[in-house]
Amino acid sequence: MSKPKIVVLGAGYAGLMTTKKLAKQLAPEEAELVLVNKHNYHYETTWLHEVAAGTINHNQARFMISDVVNPNRVRLIYDSVVKVNKEENKVVLENSELTYDYLVIALGFVTNTFGIKGMEENAFFIQDIDGCQLIRDHIEYKFAQYKNSEEKNDDDLTILVGGGGFTGIELVGELVEKVPQLCKKYDIDRRKARIINVEAAPSILPVFEKDLVAYAKESLERRGVEFMIGTKITECTEEGFVVGDDSELVKAGTIVWTGGVTGSPVLSESGFELNRGKVTVNGDLRAPGEDNIFILGDCAWVMNEAEGRPFPPTAQAAMQHATTCAHNIAALLHNEPLQNFIFDDKGTVASLGITDGVGTVFGGTKLTGKPAATMKKVVDNRSIFLFGGVNLLLKKGKVRPF
Ligand code: FAD
User: Fold this and answer.
1) Is the CB of 13 under 6 A from ligand 1?
2) 400: pLDDT confidence band, cut at 50, 70 and 90?
């Protein structure tokens, strides 16, 4: 009899960790393992804002999948997933097709513009390494262009960030570090370069309590960030955001939208029932009605039954999904009972540039300033360590001095 074939789609936090755990838990004679990913590298999604601002090199935020997964144990396929054909147990890739006995869908998120007119066409997104390099290069180009043009347009030096959630705030935190460097490099008066954050809700950083939010806002404002909070973006044009009831145009040379994400479009292409772009999975992380399909990470809503709402989608949760999923696939192969996912909340820390941050850790301890920034680096380094041990940590770890 042929071995069961387990196919994992996506080599992000959830998919790569599931693959590593399955390779450890299952003997080669027990199951064939296949990992499909768009690129031959994994990138640290939680570092993308740093790549976009140019405060770290894009190569630091990625590593080769074959450096952390044994290609003799796991078949690695670098291709884009188009859709899953559940009836035939088949995955359609851009360049081929694959059959499976067990499937893990961990394809992450795509940006959601909520249909805001012109956003798709005119704004950059924090979505992957390539897109973030484009943002970095565009910002620098705008500064260089300003320096070299006869008729200077100060708007070229404005960076507009839509969305005051985690990604938007971490991005402006990095821009606060980068913009002075660019001003120095191109001999531009720092006061001419603006960083503006626009948020429709009455507050930024909804995941944190009021005192931490106030700290973050004050710290960023002190370093030159301008906030437009409670300000709705109604349109994005080539020139900037149209905001508020009086349709004011806020002009900028660089426009970035970070205001929302949704699950991979592969989910809708494959006919899964969606709730705000993601699949609400069962406690054991399987898609409803599917015995052999697990959905993890940012593609899934995993319900927090105690609070009657889903757990927030984070890298931390995605890596924990991997543990439950690998356990449950092994249990299915061994005819053992499946486990339900239990979230072990280790806390949340947001960076506000290199030396500042805010966070809540260890069940409620609040951190600000350098302790928060240090904790953030510990969290970032932990993920690298879990994927590739000390060797990878030495190559890619964050050791930026304060
Ligand atoms: P990802 O890690 O995004 O991986 C998806 C993988 O699938 C990628 O390798 C991608 O290339 C691949 N892929 C996508 N589509 C296809 C396709 N069609 N075919 C083949 N491959 C495909 N969370 C935290 O816990 N803490 C933080 O501090 C934090 N900070 C963040 C900062 C930023 C800037 C951002 C953007 C997010 C942050 N998050 C944070 C959220 C966290 O990054 C996500 O929740 C996490 O990445 C989800 O993991 P995942 O495995 O579902 O997806």
Assistant:
1) yes
2) low
Mutate to test the pocket of ligand 1, among 42, 46, 128 (most ligand atoms within 8 A of CB): 46
Q: How many CB atoms lie within 10 A of CB 311?
A: 18
The residue behind tokens 């508020």 is 244
Is the minimum distance from the CB of 12 to ligand 1 under 6 angstroms?
A: yes
Count CB neighbours of 290 within 10 A: 16
The beta-carbon contacts of 134-139 under 8 Å, at least 24 apart in sequence, are 135/52, 135/53, 135/254, 135/256, 136/51, 136/52, 136/53, 136/54, 136/58, 138/254, 139/53, 139/54, 139/178, 139/182, 139/253, 139/254
Compute, in angstroms, the gap from residue 3 CA to the centroid of ligand 1.
Answer: 31
Residues annotated as part of the active site: 170
3-state secondary structure of 304: strand
By the 10 Å C-beta count (0-12 exposed, 13-18 middle, 19+ buried), 350 is classed as buried
Give per-residue pLDDT as tens, 63-101. Answer: 999 999 999 999 999 999 999 999 999 999 999 999 999
Ligand 1 pocket test, candidate residues 21, 45, 92, 172, most atoms within 8 A of CB? 45
Distance from residue 221's CA to the centre of ligand 1 (Å): 29
| Cβ count within 10 A of residue 181 | 13
Residue pLDDT, tens place only, 154-186? 999 999 999 999 999 999 999 999 999 999 999
The region that residue 242 occupies, defined by phi over 0 for left and psi between -120 and 50 for alpha, beta otherwise, is beta
Residue 313, ligand 1, Cβ within 6 A: yes
Residue 266, ligand 1, Cβ within 6 A: yes
Ligand 1 contacts CB of residue 14 (under 6 A):
yes
Contact 156, 32 (CB under 8 A): no
What is the set of domains in the chain, with CATH numbers?
A: 5-38+79-111+261-344 (3.50.50.100), 119-257 (3.50.50.60)
Q: Which atom of ligand 1 is nearest to the CA of 261?
A: 36
152 close to 141: Cβ distance less than 8 angstroms: no
